[in-house]
């Protein structure tokens, strides 16, 4: 049942700790584990060599020989998160080892059963999600704080860059998440100074996220993103290459369908939208709401808590103060800028790269050409239509000063 805004009158102040959100790292898991207990060595040995095993077409054979281990020896939340990271990467590699036109449609029981078991423990669907790929997949390489991934797919520096730049965007959002909590508490108190400060902190944080996103250009090659990274993130829902989904052996007789990994599964913008009162069109909202089922349940609960909190927009409208209106609008303007910038990234890494890949295939002898999903039909257009609608609804939320 959804909490109601009135309940906030008697509620205690909103805090991060209750939702597995860190003061320092936000939704990123603080200092994720890199090793599992020795019992799980067969998983770790495969996971650590995943890029080589996939590139040499040996992963599927190695996984088929893997012993069936259960998840009962995992000690606590952090080991469960690492186990899911490891099994989700192995599963994506297993399905897509031979490319996007020749997926494996059955996940063998020795992989499917523990993957589903640990997913149930964590309340996540049994497919790679943003919280595996990014939130659980970073470590400090040296005391200077340079970052490294824990588990990788093929794609070398570009893959590392894609994961770690996304982690930096999450890190840049941390002051913004704290600002949302401060603002909600400031409305409850009420404290006008604290609210104004929180709105300013939020807009600065969103601008930092846009700057961090810009590092994608420095580290990620669009052709490698398109031809390699994108493939390993593909899911088995609405994917013509796997029309019925994936059979999880030992788990379900029927194939199951799940969407692939995407930063649409990041909790950050869902929280900002709820806080700022951005309401998306039906189709976009349906997709974005579905993505909440691909988030850790405590993060999803935080979005719902922010949604149930006293409405900022109503407060701004009733306050009649121009400086509140300006600070609120500024948050929306920089959120529009972030979303517009993200659209230019998607155009470069998906749409333009897909067109280049198609051009290259047309120059190949017939028979060798593969036809990736994004080149068929109107996949690219649909993505841009969605992203523009989400951006434009953010723009429409801006309030106009009373004349
Ligand atoms: C090469 C880099 C990137 C590409 C190609 C890309 C692509 C996409 C695509 C195709 C979508 C549409 C939904 C879907 O198909 O899942 C999407 C949505 C989204 N992406 Fe990205 N993305 C990239 C990087 C990022 C980063 C670093 C972030 C920030 C953490 C991000 C945040 C989002 C969000 C929040 C959405 C949902 C739409 C919205 O709320 O505006 N993306 N992205």
TrEMBL record:
One GO term of the biological process aspect: L-tryptophan catabolic process to kynurenine
GO function terms (MF aspect): heme binding; indoleamine 2,3-dioxygenase activity; L-tryptophan 2,3-dioxygenase activity; metal ion binding
Enzyme Commission code(s) on record: 1.13.11.-
Record flagged with keyword Heme: yes
Alphabetized Pfam families for the sequence: IDO (PF01231)
Superkingdom of this protein's organism: Eukaryota
Keywords for this protein: Dioxygenase, Heme, Immunity, Iron, Metal-binding, Oxidoreductase, Tryptophan catabolism
Its job: Catalyzes the first and rate limiting step of the catabolism of tryptophan along the kynurenine pathway. Involved in immune regulation.
Taxonomic classification: Eukaryota, Metazoa, Chordata, Craniata, Vertebrata
Cellular compartments per GO CC: cytoplasm
Protein name, entry field: Indoleamine 2,3-dioxygenase 2
Annotated source species: Tupaia chinensis (Chinese tree shrew)
